[in-house]
Amino acid sequence: MTAPPTRPERVIARTFRQRLSPTPRGARLARHLALNQLQEWGIPHDTSVSDAIAVIVAELAANAVTHGRVPGRDFELALSLVAGSVRVEVTDTRADAVIDVRKPRPLEEAGRGLVLVDALADRWEVVDRQPPPGKTVRAEVDVPGWLGLVRDLDGEV
Q1: Contact, 16 vs 43, CB < 8 A?
Q2: Residue 138's pLDDT is what?
Q3: What is the pLDDT of residue 133?
Q4: pLDDT at 142
Q5: Which candidate in 11, 40, 90, 120 could, as Cys together with 60 as Cys, close a disulfide (CB 3.0–4.6 Å)?
Q6: Which residues of the chain have pLDDT under 50?
């Protein structure tokens, strides 16, 4: 399973960035911070966009904590309001973790995180962290009426 790669050259209107501890608490906080930031940008709770972003952030943060953890190193959550969508980026400092997106067997208890990301994101990809070492998983969810959000944020009507 692969989704079309994101388009990093797109215009970025707003950005939020936060480093978090690589713990279950840090992963939960990432989800809460993302939902609060979306609300601030005019994307209310309980909409299809905020629900998709919440699941994507939760899964990517959990993966960063579980599979991308390097002792003493934080992971980073970044959200960007880009032309037409919200981009989520979760970066960790472990470069050797394998990204395996396969359908889990019916009774398996793990392995569904990236399958969910693939289903909910309009585009996603894995890129090398800059500066190395590490990786960034980047996902985008399209936002209907994006231009209106940006105008509202800039104080225009």
Answers
A1: no
A2: 95
A3: 84
A4: 95
A5: 90
A6: 157
How is the beta sheet containing 123-128 ordered, strand by strand? 12-20, 75-82, 85-92, 135-142, 123-128
pLDDT digits (tens, 9 = 90+) for 103-124: 655 555 555 678 889 999 999 9
Region label for 145, one of left (φ > 0), alpha (ψ between -120 and 50) or beta (otherwise)? left
Structure tokens at 39: 């609300």
Give the CA dihedral 103, 71, 29, 121, nearest 10 degrees: -30
